[in-house]
Design a protein that fits this description.
Elements lengths: L2 H33 L2 H22 L2 H7 L5 H33 L4 H17 L1 H9 L3 H26 L4 H20 L17 H28 L2 H33 L8 H26 L1 H9 L7 H8 L2 H16 L3 H25 L3 H28 L4 H5 L2 H20 L5 H22 L3 H13 L2
Length: 482
């Protein structure tokens, strides 16, 4: 199968899985939001940040390393799996026995049992790293999609059932525990690896520099992405954190379900052609052109349907999350483009400069978050700070990508963004006129009207904006197998 056909197939199956999971996630979240309280979501958000941070140590760069170094043999993979087992024991024990200290720090007794339950999730999630990475290396995107959808549906059903019967916060931890367990079982059965108590690292030593910088980037990136939850939870309290977490998660849903359709497919395919001159830059500009015309107008749509989205999906008690969601939604286009840049650093073998980007973005993101939390003391200020810093980080990351990896000027890349930004400004103008001169009876009517306008605008942009031929060309290539 050609590379374009593999890309199309991978994106197709990943998209089917992600969008099915999105519908399930929205339905489950909508139900749980009506059964549980904002402070319960806030408490779980704190525990999730801690466990997710330790999950970075579970990977230690193994996933990208296994994908990039295709010459790793079964014995080498078994050594990596053995390391993962030791990491699983250490990390899950750390969470389980350290949960009391975290509960005391945040003065919330619920944190202890929540963290202890999530230690189970961390254990199986760590064990899954190596066999799961082999799935991606072998480009088994269909099997990955089926596995993910099954875990999401089963976890959602159990979570809603628990909330309906018991109505407590533990409904929010069922899904991650079940998902990590099922993914490990399925992955290990497909790619069984032998555990070794004692082993030599000599045969895999050449991969350590690559994985080290990837690991350091993951730590820095996670810290900058999650310090907002920790800072808000400590300084402003669980209730504001619950509102902020809901706003951030709602903003992240379309973002994740677009980027996680494309980026998991990118690195496995790009790494096979990384030696071809100009290939990485050409693919980057093609994908960026598509992501820009999707992301920038979507940011405008999300901003203007913020009231309707929050009230229709979560209920009127979540109204305080709307302003933060509005500001965060304006960053969706920037984040969408930024999310794919890491795959090109990885495929180019330059995880060192990927780490440099992580350090730069971490400094700016943390600064914006801390100013919003401790100086302005509002979740809206935190959202504005993140919007500003995302824009700064975007410019820096793509300048460095072109300068160091592509060895070219980044001016042609930024020129690609002019038309998508212009069309987005026009769409914002249409919504502003609608806001000032059109009245509608209820939230559902407003949501349908604004979404209809967004759909019509996207069709016009694709047809008259020069994107129609790109899409036709893409499908012709797919049909012809080129």
């Amino acid at each position: 199968m050609s590379s374009s056909a593999q890309f199309f197939s991978g994106v197709l199956f990943t998209a089917l899985s992600k969008y099915a999971n999105l519908l399930v996630s929205l339905l489950v979240t909508a139900i749980l939001s009506r059964l549980l309280l904002p402070e319960q979501f806030g408490v779980v958000a704190i525990a999730t940040v801690v466990v997710s941070f330790l999950s970075i140590f579970a990977d230690v760069g193994f996933t990208s390393t296994i994908i990039q170094f295709k010459n790793l043999e079964q014995q080498d993979l078994s050594k990596l799996f053995s390391i993962s087992f030791y990491l699983a024991v250490v990390l899950s024990s750390f969470v389980f026995f350290g949960s009391g200290l975290l509960a005391n720090y945040y003065d919330d007794v619920l944190l202890k049992p929540i963290c202890q339950l999530l230690a189970i999730h961390l254990f199986f999630n760590t064990l899954s790293v190596v066999p799961n990475a082999i799935f991606y290396r072998e480009k088994l995107f269909k099997q990955i999609a089926i596995r993910s959808t099954i875990a999401q549906v089963l976890g959602g059903i159990l979570a809603v059932g628990w909330a309906l019967n018991y109505g407590n916060v533990f409904a929010l931890v069922i899904n991650p525990i079940l998902s990590s367990f099922l993914i490990f079982i399925i992955s290990y059965r497909r790619f069984p690896l032998r555990f070794q108590f004692i082993f030599s690292l000599k045969s895999i030593a050449h991969t350590f520099r690559y994985s080290l910088y990837q690991f350091l980037f993951n730590i820095i990136n996670f810290f900058s992405r999650n310090i907002d939850t920790l800072a808000i939870g400590k300084h402003l309290g669980a209730i504001p954190l619950g509102y902020y977490d809901k706003a951030y998660r709602l903003m992240s849903l379309p973002l994740q379900n677009i980027t996680q359709v494309i980026t998991p497919v990118l690195h496995p395919l790009l790494s096979a052609h990384s030696d071809e001159e100009g290939y990485l830059m050409k693919v980057n500009e093609s994908i960026s052109r598509l992501l820009a015309i999707i992301g920038f107008p979507m940011s405008i749509w999300l901003f203007f349907v913020s009231d309707e989205l929050v009230f229709l999906f979560f209920g009127s008690q979540w109204g305080a999350a709307v302003p933060a969601f509005q500001y965060l939604s304006l960053s969706v286009g920037i984040q969408l483009l930024l999310s794919s840049s890491g795959s090109f650093f990885q495929a180019g073998g330059d995880t060192r400069n990927l780490f440099v980007c992580g350090v730069f973005s971490s400094i700016f993101n943390v600064t914006g978050i801390l100013i919003g939390t401790f100086y302005f003391e509002s979740i809206e200020a935190v959202a504005i700070g993140l919007l500003i810093t995302f824009c700064i980080n975007f410019v820096q990351a793509y300048w460095l990508l072109y300068f160091k990896v592509f060895k070219a000027s980044s001016s042609q890349f930024f020129a690609l963004l002019i038309r998508p930004i212009f069309y987005s400004i026009l769409l914002a103008g249409v919504y502003s006129v609608l806001y000032n001169y059109v009245n509608y009876d209820n939230m559902l009517t407003g949501f349908v009207l604004k979404t209809f306008i967004y759909g019509i605008a996207m069709l016009l942009i694709i047809y008259f904006g020069g994107y129609r031929n790109d899409i036709i060309s893409f499908f012709k290539k797919r049909k012809g197998g080129n």
